[in-house]
Write the structure tokens for this entry.
Amino acid sequence: MQQDILINWSPQETRVAVVEHGAVQELHIERTLERGLVGNIYLGKVSRVLPGMQSAFIDMGLERAAFLHVADVWQRQEGGEPPMALRNKTEPLVPIEKQVFEGQALMVQVIKDPIGTKGARLSTQISIAGRLLVFLPQDDHVGVSQKIPLTEREALRARLQALVGDKSSGGGGGFILRTNGEDATDEELSEDIAYLRKTWTGIREAAQRMPPRSLLYQDLSLLQRVLRDLVGEQTQSIRIDSNEQHALMQSFGKEFMPAAAAKLQLYKMERPIFDLYSIDEDVARALGRRVDLKSGGYLIVDQTEALTTIDVNTGGYVGARNFDDTIFKTNLEAAGAIARQLRLRNLGGIVIVDFIDMVREEHQSAVLSEFRKQLSRDRVKTMVGGFSQLGLVEMTRKRTRESLAHMLCEPCPTCQGVGEIKTARSICYEILREVLREARQFNPREFRVVASPKVVELFLDEESQHLAGLSDFIGKPISLHAESVMGQEQYDIVLL
């Protein structure tokens, strides 16, 4: 499976497309103004200690002082116990006034971004995330993600412990195996361990030479994560259209990921890099509900808060010899298209797929097998069940970041995200009921209806008789005023 990575960089936004066999499979976006502080490590200065709140304010050189609670102050654990963050905090906490003092220089990590008038929340428990592991430099605990099956954890922990080594052999430090490291080779784990230790060495050296209120480590940018997370043996090239960012990626890659850096190329053509594979067109289609298949069939994708549903339809496909074969071939094509849409849209959580009903069991097995094969290319962990009694396939895909739609779109101000609005006639009748309700409570000289042009036009034409009848019934004139800025469901009734 050949893979190319295309990077479109601008000062306000970085876009990364993963292309396989000429079709975009993944899109990653990072916007400069929306990049948070979580994960950043600072050398802060304690500005105030508040014993009554068991907290302290830390000056990090930001607009507002950050907040450190006693529960987030790291304490050394004896006997290889896991850090406090991973255990039930039943042990009594040492009062914060006995752990920090005003004016003290303190290494801290942001665990929650500033919100409104509140500053960032901090911890002195440092953790650095790699591609496969999380490094806890202040601890010696070696653990495995609880999302990995219990039967596999001990063997994985033993493997990781052997690779980590101990302090006498130049090792040490705590490591936690992430979920996506379950199937990693020893070589991949060793590379991640070396990268994380090298990063920590750089942070400690920076803390010794830099003054308080300095940024010691910033969580990797999207460009750096491309080299760390997205590049593999199947990657043929990484092309970027910025000379400056190409040089920065080369510098970072040569130090931490030489194999990935060797695949970097500077794109110099005048044609926009995303035009090479019509990526923007694919993204536009990925934001819609309907996805057309080459055979004439189509998918309907509906994303809700709880789950995502995908419906497969034959559409205009009539190419097979009989109806069963038509359904089978449409479902086979849909299996590949659905796997691609899940990656491109970055849909996570529960996904329900409604393939077209198949009578023959061998057809069901073949479609399910093809679906699992296509999903195996996904770097995000997926789990697929069989066909249910209702003919549905249930699956889950791990949530790693916001979906494409949530990142690029916002709810429609007219329909408020429902996807539909009431008809103009429904609004007319709603207005008539509201005028009658107001007439029973108040006694104005006149009622004026302010509504969208389409609603007013309907009142002047097909609904004019009903409007006149209501005016006679309440004994008051009803005037109309069209307001172009109003949505179809918006209206106002003014009492004159």
Notes: The chain has a mean pLDDT of 88.
